[in-house]
Amino acid sequence: MNEIVLKGVSISKGIAIGSPFFLTEKKDNPPHLELALGEIEKEIERYHLALKKSKVDLEHLQSRFVNDGATVVVEILGAQLEILHDPIITHLVEERIKVSHKNTEAVFQEVINEYNKVFEKIDDDDFEERISDIKDVSRRILRHLRPLKKETAACEKNSIVIAPDLIPSDALEAHFSEIKGFVAEKGGYTSHVGIIARAKGIPYVAKVNIDALMNLDIKNMIVDGISGEIIVNPSSETLKKYSILQEKYHKYFLEISSHVHLAAKTIDGEDVKIFSNIESLDDVPQVLQNKADGIGLYRSEYIVLTEKQFPSEERQFEIYKKILEKLEGRPAIVRLFDLGSDKMHFFLSEEVDIDHEMNPSLGCRGIRFLIKNNGIFEKQLRALLKASIYGNLRILIPMVSDISEFLLVKDKIKKTREDLEKEGKKVAKNIPLGCMIEVPSCAIMSHNFAKEADFFSIGSNDLTQYVIAADRSNPDTNYLYDFSHPSLFKLIEMTIKSAKKYKKEVIICGEMAADSKFTELLIGMGIRSFSISASNIATIKYAVRKTDAKDAIAMAKEALKINNVEDLKNFILKDQTVF
Ligand code: PEP
Ligand code: MG
Q1: Across residues 60-76, what is the average pLDDT?
Q2: Which of 275, 300, 436 to mutate to test the pocket of ligand 1 (most atoms within 8 A of CB)?
């Protein structure tokens, strides 16, 4: 049998070796029965019993994950319990049983299908998760109405579960002794199945062509959750290589997990701050759980993107206030709305002044958009300044390309403060104002910005795209978009040098900060603050704790002499095992 490699996307890291278990959607056709009048009450009771049993299941699972400290999983189960208690569904099912005299399974399926159809029309990731939760809950209820053999329970030891689309309970109920890995066609990093798989340490690769897999005669397979590949019928040589890698990764995973509660200090005692990036208020518990030093980047535009409208001053004030309060004095850096025409196609044109653009990433985005849409800008500043008294607020300006933009914001904040104080409102005395370094002109002129800004935040995602002129989301330019490009480090070096002169803090956010292969180099260049998503904190903290700052300085000196991507990549990876 020939070894076959299929490419997917890694959702949960790790290596799984096992045999395939295809979890195809069973076409379970429950009976459609006509009930006699005297049977109606009993039928409704049967429905309530199934609800009760499902509730016990979910609560039992919840308490198990509470004990494990997996709060995100507990929240997902909480959302499922809410669906279970949804009075609209329960009432509708009861009424239909009474009126149509049909049995519970038939009515329940009817109602759930209608509910699904409503959500399916909405093109939104959150709603996709909601549909997946509804499917999951209804499958659980139907299982209690007509006990079937559980699909995943049929798995043998060392199974790799393969499905077009996994739902949360597939991951929740997976016993590690049996299920070693997941492979699916659909699914993204932030999906509930993804979150649960990561919490349980089960490797998971999505975006795999399942049809192709189904047509193969598979004896055994490997899920490489590190590279995002599936290896079907591996040769003995490949199996040996992966067994070693699996062992290595397992040790690494145990080790990094044990470091999350320790201080982010280098071997030679240099303190490093690990902040967290968030997209919503819901991300804050994970930030606290992972012991971050604060929020280094709140992408506030997600309020607009998820609510699909511009939030009022009051709505924003409530969100900012809650975040600041939850952080109990730790800094929270709120980035002003980073919006552009590419992210706002769903808005009515009269709501905002924005045109269709040929090059949205070079267009009216970030601070340029706010300057053009003064009403939106003022509301956000007023909300932020009013919330500032509830914690340690810092404000960050996105997409700055010229000092005039920075000075304009500074002046606007000053005027907003004066207006609010005239209205008798309190504003914190000191609200540090930072500048995103994500446009090359800003890095090159950082000596000028460092006089004005209170801190810098290097946005490595955009800085890479702009310095190489390679669209960060275009697959055709992917081969050029590389954090190891030496030009990027030249700009970072300039930025750090300027900040140092004026004693200003430099934070690095963007995905480069979350990639542990760059940690030593960045520390060697002088970075002492990282801002990354909460799920990466353990990895980066571990990388910091393995770094000797003095060695890192010497390493960075050598790295900065290198002039091409491949050489720099090899140099960085020398002596490193990076997962
Ligand atoms: C960046 O550009 O690196 C950054 C952190 O901002 P965003 O990814 O939101 O553009
Ligand atoms: Mg950016």
Answers
A1: 75
A2: 436
